[in-house]
Specification:
The complex is a heterodimer. In chain A, about 30% of the residues lie in helices and about 25% in strands. Chain A has seven helices and ten strands. Chain A has helices spanning about 15-25, 75-85, 105-110, 125-135, 145-150, 170-180, 200-215; strands at about 5, 35-45, 50-60, 65-70, 90-95, 100, 110-115, 185-190, 215-220, 235-240. Chain A has a six-stranded mixed sheet with strand order 1-10-4-9-8-7, with helices on both faces. Chain A has a four-stranded antiparallel sheet with strand order 3-2-5-6, with helices on one face. In chain A, helix 4 (about 125-135) packs parallel to helix 6. The longest helix of chain A is centred in the C-terminal third of the chain and has 16 residues, at about 200-215. Helices cover about 80% and strands about 0% of the residues of chain B.
Chain lengths: ~240, ~230
């Protein structure tokens, strides 16, 4: 049986920090103070005879990050996939900006960037070609944008190498470049620091903080503590008991 | 919400998918050549097994060509969505905000361009080796070209339905082959009439009708099947 514990002790203490940072960071989205809010109400999900999600409820607002923790098989990935709309919960609703995501799922997906366990990169294409396709399907982008983000993520040395020749950590960095290029306000990240070295893990924290400061939201399933200011972090712990 | 740059249209996204699949196929030439080599080997083996007598081979040529084309097309179908499902690309397609139907249709078009069209080009060579008259080549190319469109579309539904199944090859064959029977029947009939020098328009129209039906329904069915498989 699975139980759920929501811990909000570290949330909401200093929301002003976030607003202060918005003033100095160039907003990514049109409305710097949008009413973006991801809310899950009483989510129940069954996989066969396993009751994976038992009444999960939370709300994340613009500028906040929800960190989902829990052991293996606790349902972190299932929750992320449910939030993304790929999986259908047996009970409960997910709303984005006040509207049920099922009402206009394509519009919701346009606002969403999801990175699963494995980066969706083709081994026989280069980093540039992969991003040109992966992001290009969502929005038109310039070659310079791809180069800029790859350089920013420290991938400039291997941008023209086939993905199959890269290490797992290098692939993860390319995937993170894709995440930035998608320019979506809502990030759903499944173990975003997997395979990354210490510098890479810090980089993920920085990217999330920048994203939040620009008015974005992030939901991250993660084993280790994210290196993000505790003022913008909410925690949700899933445990299999 | 403002997304830097403008959103990609459904047609542009489909074009990108088509271009990417063709590029990937040329980087994995083994998969590209496999169905064509299979087609060549099967059509070459028949004369060895039946008889080298051209009059006998000419009689069985329509059946040989179409069964070989059907099985060759099936061989490549297993790879149609499998790699994309394994590396998370299909998931990204679903979450891209684009029409999954269009994206999967583009992938099916790429499959036809890389398998069906080369088969249509190779079919006359195989047919000539089976002793069919040169005058029938046009009819054979047309029937294989149109019929393979229908085969790719039918196959895309089967490939999508078997996505979540391990070692799905056998199940894919069981699903796809019965649905492909009308294509086989009309295709073989068109080829037979072309070899005899008679009008083959009627079966060709029926093949065209099947292809149009496939274009209309198969991408929708494949998209629904992919969504179910991913859940």
């Amino acid at each position: 049986m699975l139980t759920l514990r929501v811990d909000t002790l570290t949330y909401g203490a200093k929301p002003l920090n976030l607003r202060d940072s918005r003033a100095i960071v160039q907003p990514l989205f049109a409305d710097p103070m949008p009413e973006r809010r991801l809310q899950a109400e009483n989510l129940h999900l069954w996989r066969g005879d396993r009751h994976v999600l038992k009444g999960v409820r939370f709300a994340v607002n613009a500028g906040e990050c929800l960190q989902i923790t829990g052991g293996n098989g606790a349902g972190k990935t299932s929750l992320l996939r449910t939030l993304s709309g790929i999986m259908y919960p047996e009970e409960g609703t997910i709303t984005w900006c006040g509207a049920n995501i099922r009402r206009d799922i394509q519009a919701f997906h346009s606002d969403l960037a999801y990175i699963g366990h494995e980066p969706p990169l083709k081994p026989d294409l280069t980093a540039q070609e992969n991003l040109r396709y992966w992001v290009g399907v969502r929005r038109r982008l310039e070659e310079a944008e791809i180069d800029h983000e790859l350089t920013r993520l420290g991938c400039d040395q291997w941008r023209t190498r086939p993905i199959r020749t890269l290490s797992a950590g290098q692939k993860r960095r390319v995937a993170l470049a894709g995440l930035l290029l998608m320019a979506a306000p809502l990030w759903l990240l499944d173990e975003p620091t997997t395979n990354l070295d210490t510098a890479g893990q810090r980089l993920v924290g920085t990217l999330i903080e920048e994203h939040l400061a620009k008015g974005g939201l992030a939901v991250a399933a993660i084993h280790h503590e994210l290196e993000v200011s505790s003022a913008v972090i909410r925690r949700l712990e899933l445990s299999s008991k | 919400m403002e997304i830097p740059g403008t959103g990609t249209s459904a047609l542009e996204a489909a074009r990108l998918t088509l271009a990417r699949d063709i590029r990937l196929a040329f980087r994995k030439r083994g998969q590209l050549v496999q169905p064509l080599a299979f087609f060549a080997i099967v059509t070459t083996l028949f004369p060895l097994g039946i008889s080298p007598e051209l009059s006998r081979l000419r009689d069985v040529a329509p059946g040989v060509l179409w069964v070989a084309a059907l099985l060759s097309s099936l061989l490549a179908l297993e790879f149609l969505f499998r790699d994309d499902a394994q590396d998370g690309t299909l998931e990204q397609h679903v979450l891209s905000g684009q029409s999954l139907t269009w994206l999967l249709f583009a992938k099916t078009v790429a499959h036809w361009l890389l398998t069906g069209l080369p088969l249509a080009v190779m079919a006359p060579l195989a047919a000539l080796s089976l002793g069919v008259p040169v005058a029938s080549v046009g009819g054979i190319v047309a029937s294989v070209a149109i019929g393979s469109v229908a085969l790719s579309l039918i196959g895309s539904v089967g490939a999508a339905l078997t996505l979540g199944v391990k070692r799905s090859g056998a199940l894919l064959s069981l699903l796809t082959l019965p649905l492909s029977m009308p294509v086989l029947i009309f295709g073989a009939r068109a080829t037979e009439l072309a070899i005899k020098g008679e009008g083959f328009a009627a079966p060709l129209y029926l093949l065209g009708a099947l292809a149009v039906l496939g274009i209309t329904l198969a991408p929708l069915a494949a998209a629904a099947a992919v969504r179910i498989s991913l859940e």
